[in-house]
Design goal:
Distance between the termini of chain A: 40 Å
Oligomer: heterodimer
Radius of gyration of chain A: 13 Å
Distance between the termini of chain B: 37 Å
Largest sheet of chain A: 6 strands, mixed
Order of helices and strands of chain A: EEEEEEEEEEE
Number of helices of chain B: 0
Largest sheet of chain B: 7 strands, mixed
Shape of chain B: globular
Radius of gyration of chain B: 13 Å
Structural class of chain B: mainly beta
Number of helices of chain A: 0
Strand content of chain A: over 45%
Order of helices and strands of chain B: EEEEEEEEEEE
Largest interface: A-B, 25 and 30 residues
Chain lengths: 113, 112
């Protein structure tokens, strides 16, 4: 069974601060996605990383894929209250095709004004 | 382009009953996956269908089943409901060959 560990589980910070969320596995991902979920809604895809060492930016969010493709991080710069939500990483361990994503348990992020 | 549509949004059922949930994928997406989300276990993969065939199944009891129709719409069924089946059930559709999932809003099932 492939496990995906996400940390921290909960994070509450002040507006304007920076933060990093981590996603780790003992297995190699063929690809990894980050999602954001708001209460009562389904997760919304933020980014997909595929290549080891890859870095992608989405406004104030920076996503990094580890060189060995076993870990990933999400860094938010100058967090805003609108960033509040549940951040989920999800890994695909098979090459191509939707064989079922393995999700981390998520990071509950609260940005206080 | 319409997103993934799940119906109903909310359901309350009694232990022992059965329930059927519906999912319409994004137009052109032929793969549909189902997930169960609970506070304790997070998001867990149930099964995935492609072209009316179940391609993969998660570690759930046989009470959980699904099917996919020729128009790619999918249903999942849970029989003999237990209190522990209370969860948010999410459906996701994928374009063929890609693992990125586009989720619906989910069906909140409460078993009493």
């Amino acid at each position: 069974t492939q496990l995906l560990e996400q940390s921290p589980q909960f994070l509450s910070i002040q507006e304007g601060e920076n933060l990093t969320v981590y996603c780790n596995s003992s297995s190699v991902f063929s690809s990894l996605q980050w999602y954001r979920q708001e209460p009562g809604e389904g997760p919304v895809l933020l980014v997909t990383v595929v290549t080891g060492g890859e870095v992608k930016k989405l406004k104030r969010l920076t996503f990094q894929f580890g060189d060995a493709r076993k870990d990933s991080s999400l860094h938010i710069t100058a967090a805003q209250p609108g960033d509040t939500g549940l951040y989920l990483c999800a890994g695909s361990f098979s090459g191509g095709g939707a064989d079922g994503l393995t999700f981390g348990k998520g990071t509950h992020l609260i940005i206080q004004p | 382009k319409a997103g993934v549509t799940q119906t109903p949004r909310y359901l309350i059922k009694t232990r022992g009953q059965q329930v059927t949930l519906s999912c319409s994928p994004i137009s052109g997406h032929r793969s549909v996956s189902w997930y169960q989300q609970t506070p304790g276990q997070g998001l867990q993969f149930l099964f995935e269908y492609f072209s009316e065939t179940q391609r993969n199944k998660g570690n759930f009891p046989g009470r959980f089943s699904g099917r996919q129709f020729s128009n790619s719409r999918s249903e999942m069924n849970v029989s003999t409901l237990e209190l522990g089946d209370s969860a948010l059930y999410l459906c996701a559709s994928n374009r063929q060959g890609l693992s990125e999932a586009f989720f619906g809003q989910g069906t909140r099932l409460t078993v009493v």
